[in-house]
Amino acid sequence: MTSSNSAPAFRLAACAEMLFRELPAVERVKRLDELGFLVEIWDWTRHDIKALAGSGATFSSMTGYVTGTLADPEGAAELLRTAKLSIPVAKELGIPRLNLHGTGLDGSGLPVRPAFLVTGSMWAQARDTLNRLADLGEAEGVTFVLENLNAAVDHPGVPFGRAEDCLALVASIDRPSLRMMLDLYHAQIGEGNLIELLKRSLPYIGEIQVADVPGRCEPGTGEINYPGIAEALVAMGYRGVIGLEAWPSSDSETALRRFRTAFLG
Question: What is the CATH number for 163?
């Protein structure tokens, strides 16, 4: 998929936590870089940051906190504290986008503080927390991105998991230092109607992540028409990063080839 001037329409990233898992982390990062992809990582505390910084790779995003939650005062204070700790790491790696969730996730992806009912006071606290994170991002020259997560399959009980919830929060604050990490895998499970969702979200998107449904593998393995989504994104003027956050259905190189074909043709 190319834009009208024949330049690639998007920059493609890939998640080092899910691909080439047979390799040590630094070797995964180097391999993704050799193949021409930006690199995404998750929890920075599990990595040798100096080794990653010396890999020569260009990074796209990482988890922007260690612990904490959006919607209660104690959890919000912890989220802000660990977000501040994350920023020097992001700067060492040259990472522009720091990822957030409605609450911290455990090693199985389950919410550390599940909320099956989100109250008005929780919305108000979440908005205040995100506004403070936007202050922090603005002061430090980074962008915090709020990711949608599905509650039906992977993250039951996650608060503010719907893409519509993330859009409502980010749009209500409307600051460049706070944007959406719009994950289309999660959105397809939770909401569907992806192209219309992209149109509504476009002014607030910091990055897009993709995987197919079901299975969370690369494009072409499930029900989502990713070439059609790529065409729609070009038509609506999106020129940002698209990240593959997916398990390879067979091997990582095949998954990356299918991903590149879906979005760049």
Answer: 3.20.20.150
